[in-house]
């Protein structure tokens, strides 16, 4: 459709045109059932088969081992800020019924505004002390900016936490962990002890980087979660990859003194019902399924990893050039920049406004930085084509002339 423009928005964000075209057909008539996808029963055999297929597409492409369940829920990343705390406090209680609740510790790695928010929710819920393992702001010049992944030596994990939380890609701040273990900006998996937990309760928010490349050390994670609305579909669907030992009887834990867990937030409810405890977001699931089928046809995550790497590298190269000319300023330190959300400033009074207006005039939108930090943010999710990135780069080169 020629009326469509390049949408670099951070979420909800662009979806592949071929998927949208197919989805419009499914909206009218889902798989020849004569009923549209937004109207069909979530208990119909056709929908249940579709959901099963979505699960196996994720399992295959991410290589999820049999130790982990794939669950679907709602409430976005924000609901998981609460759910991970409640479920893993329950797990911890069942493992250690004799321990004093006040001594329970929740470890948070804070590298941006989303992990900061998750830590705040853990504090609000109580049930454990929040230990900030590291706060990356201490490494910024101003002491206030989330602009790098901290060095491994700065992490202060507690000996036996109920959970260890990090956010793989900070959507607002444009800071992302490297997937190369040799990089100083990688997550320090080698420092995780596990204490008396037989298995490390490592939790990762993958909301804005899910399915853009393989997940390293996936099997070492307790919970990985992501909202669908960046790389794989419309808002409404949240995907969870949960290790079996984290799917616990929350009512048994409540009898031992933990906070009762709302049924819709309990991982056991989701697992026992095949993610169909209540009505799921059928339309979101449908579109996510179409996106994942398309990904499979295009060669799976390897293909997307290569393409996304290329897209990010050429954009960063253009920004470096603009920086050299004194026109642009990257906001994230070298080595910690995200592939998915690239953030920078345009130097000078009203320069940012001029940059954004020029982009709009050339058919490129969604480039305004998050309201909390300002600046420019380019989101390069899977559906952003290389041609669109090239179009943006051509404009940046013209602008910095
Ligand atoms: N975590 C990350 C990394 C995010 O980018 C977002 C949303 N942009 C959230 C959590 C919150 O997700 P939601 O809006 O789906 O609740």
From TrEMBL:
Q: Which UniProt keywords apply?
A: Amino-acid biosynthesis, Aminotransferase, Pyridoxal phosphate, Serine biosynthesis, Transferase
* Catalytic activity entry: O-phospho-L-serine + 2-oxoglutarate = 3-phosphooxypyruvate + L-glutamate; 4-(phosphooxy)-L-threonine + 2-oxoglutarate = (R)-3-hydroxy-2-oxo-4-phosphooxybutanoate + L-glutamate
Amino-acid biosynthesis is among the record's keywords: yes
| Gene Ontology molecular functions | O-phospho-L-serine:2-oxoglutarate aminotransferase activity; pyridoxal phosphate binding
**Which terms in the GO cellular component ontology are assigned?**
cytoplasm
Q: Name one GO biological process term.
A: L-serine biosynthetic process
Q: In which pathway does it act?
A: Amino-acid biosynthesis; L-serine biosynthesis; L-serine from 3-phospho-D-glycerate: step 2/3
Necessary cofactors: pyridoxal 5'-phosphate
Residue ranges of domain Aminotransferase class V in the record? 7-392
Q: What is its EC number?
A: 2.6.1.52
Q: Which Gene3D superfamilies match?
A: Aspartate Aminotransferase, domain 1 (3.90.1150.10), Type I PLP-dependent aspartate aminotransferase-like (Major domain) (3.40.640.10)
Question: What family does the Swiss-Prot or TrEMBL record give for this protein?
Answer: Belongs to the class-V pyridoxal-phosphate-dependent aminotransferase family. SerC subfamily.
This chain belongs to the protein called phosphoserine transaminase
């Amino acid at each position: 459709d020629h009326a469509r423009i390049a949408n670099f928005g951070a979420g909800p964000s662009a979806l592949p045109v071929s998927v949208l075209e197919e989805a419009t057909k499914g909206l009218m008539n889902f798989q020849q059932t004569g009923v549209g996808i937004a109207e069909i029963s979530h208990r119909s055999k056709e929908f249940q088969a579709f959901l099963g297929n979505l699960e196996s597409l994720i399992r295959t492409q991410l290589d999820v081992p049999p130790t982990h369940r794939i669950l679907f829920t709602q409430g976005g990343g924000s609901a998981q800020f609460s759910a991970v705390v409640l479920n893993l406090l329950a797990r911890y209680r069942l493992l250690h019924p004799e321990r004093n609740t006040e001594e329970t510790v929740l470890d948070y790695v804070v590298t941006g505004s989303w992990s900061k928010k998750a830590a705040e929710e853990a504090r609000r819920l109580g049930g454990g002390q929040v230990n900030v393992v590291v706060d990356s702001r201490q490494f910024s010049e101003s002491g206030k900016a989330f602009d790098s992944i901290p060095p491994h030596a700065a992490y202060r994990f507690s000996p036996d936490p109920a959970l260890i939380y990090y956010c793989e890609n900070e959507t607002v701040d444009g800071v992302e962990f490297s997937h190369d273990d040799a990089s100083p900006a990688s997550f320090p998996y080698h420092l995780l002890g596990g204490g008396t937990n037989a298995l490390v309760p490592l939790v990762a928010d993958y909301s804005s980087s899910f399915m853009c490349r393989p997940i390293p050390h996936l099997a070492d994670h307790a919970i990985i979660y992501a909202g669908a609305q960046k790389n794989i579909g419309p808002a409404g669907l949240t995907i969870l990859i949960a290790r079996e030992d984290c799917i616990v009887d929350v009512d048994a834990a409540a009898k031992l003194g933990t906070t009762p867990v709302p049924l819709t937030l309990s991982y056991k409810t989701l697992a026992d019902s095949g993610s169909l405890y209540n009505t799921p977001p059928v339309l979101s699931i449908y579109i996510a399924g179409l996106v994942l089928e398309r990904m499979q046809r295009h060669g799976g995550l390897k293909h997307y990893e290569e393409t996304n790497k290329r897209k990010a590298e050429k954009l960063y190269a253009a920004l470096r050039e603009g920086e050299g000319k004194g026109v642009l300023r990257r906001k994230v330190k070298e080595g910690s920049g995200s592939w998915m959300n690239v953030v920078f400033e345009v130097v000078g009074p009203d320069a940012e406004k001029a940059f954004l207006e020029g982009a709009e005039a050339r058919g490129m939108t969604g480039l305004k930085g998050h309201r909390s930090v300002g600046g420019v943010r380019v989101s390069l999710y899977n559906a952003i084509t290389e041609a669109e990135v090239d179009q943006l780069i051509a404009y940046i080169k013209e602008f910095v002339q």
